[in-house]
Specification:
Length: 301
């Protein structure tokens, strides 16, 4: 289950574009929420930070006292090995321009510098591992980022920290509600230079192949509901690699909106969609409905 954690707040805030999903403060409210989730059978979380300070180089993303680092320490000190913490590793929430790397501006055009960016991503990953992350999940889609992170983790004694790579991540409009949740909308341009063209299936498969070669332990297809064919194709191409699929914010919010309006039966619709994602070939599903699903399945048994 994804969790948003925001620096500088005392109480959970509901996210306007994602009804019933909250940004949590780093305090006992977060601890209570995790305790509740554990009772419901959810013990794996992917963390997204909303920092106080943004700059051009995402400095707050690798601060040992940054939002994610503080959160990791708090949760690990409280729950130890009872929870598995995955950290989304990216810069878009931490940069003033909102891009997933280092931007160079030349007159009216800009460029995301891939090779400089992957060094930065490796530093962020290392600081997350030092703070207690169990799994690092690079989501920037920079070429070579998985290999660079693997090398850096290994050199610093974190050989045992696995990488869940956002391998096949499409430039999707369905990330819209998330960008409101995490204040990470690009200030200019878009992500089509590094995320993939939604029309291109083969490139999605190729990106998975590259990440596996660079040392990814788990690969991912994202979005999920609208990319079932990619999930199926990746699973068939790489059957022996664990495959995660991310049921993203826009896919969540569409179902939620219909449910709130009484247009669909929420429980049946969510279970049907989630089953479809597993049926297509996912081994792991990341979903904002995780806790609801866990509760429903418990009621049924
Ligand atoms: C990047 C990141 C994004 C999401 C997960 N990691 C946003 C983006 O690529 O713009 C989107 C997840 C969602 O929509 O639920 N840090």
């Amino acid at each position: 289950m994804p969790i948003f954690i925001k620096d500088g707040i005392d109480n959970p805030e509901e996210i306007k574009t994602m009804p019933e999903v909250y940004r949590y403060p780093v305090n006992d409210k977060l601890i209570n929420y995790i305790e509740e989730s554990l009772k419901n059978g959810i013990n794996k979380f992917i963390l997204f930070g909303v920092p106080k300070i943004k700059d051009d180089l995402a400095t707050s993303a690798m601060d040992s006292d940054g939002i994610i680092q503080k959160t990791l320490k708090l949760i690990k000190n409280t729950f130890g090995g009872k929870v598995l913490l995955i950290t989304d590793e990216c810069t878009d929430e931490y940069t003033s321009h909102g891009h997933c790397g280092i931007v160079t501006i030349n007159g009216s055009s800009y460029k995301v510098d891939n090779d400089e960016s992957i060094k930065l991503h490796a530093k962020i990953a290392l600081s997350q591992a030092k703070a207690g992350a169990d799994v690092i999940a690079p989501s920037s889609m920079m070429d070579g980022v998985v290999g660079e992170i693997r090398k850096t983790l290994d050199e610093n004694g974190f050989q045992d920290v696995p990488i869940m790579a956002y391998s096949s991540k499409y430039a999707s409009t369905f990330y819209g509600p998330f960008r409101e949740a995490a204040y990470s909308k690009p200030a200019f341009g878009d992500r089509r230079g590094y995320q993939m063209d939604p029309r291109n299936l083969e490139e999605g498969v190729r990106e998975v192949y590259l990440d596996i070669q660079e040392g990814a332990d788990i690969v991912m297809v994202k979005p999920a509901h609208t990319y079932l064919d990619v999930i199926r194709r990746v699973k068939q191409s790489f059957p022996c690699y664990p495959l995660a699929a991310y049921h993203v914010s826009g896919e969540y919010s569409m179902l939620k909106a219909a449910a709130i309006n009484g247009w669909i039966d929420e429980k049946r619709a969510v279970l049907e969609v989630t089953n479809a994602i597993f049926r297509a070939g996912a081994d792991i599903v990341i979903t904002y409905f995780a806790e609801d699903i866990a509760k429903w399945l418990k009621q049924q048994s």
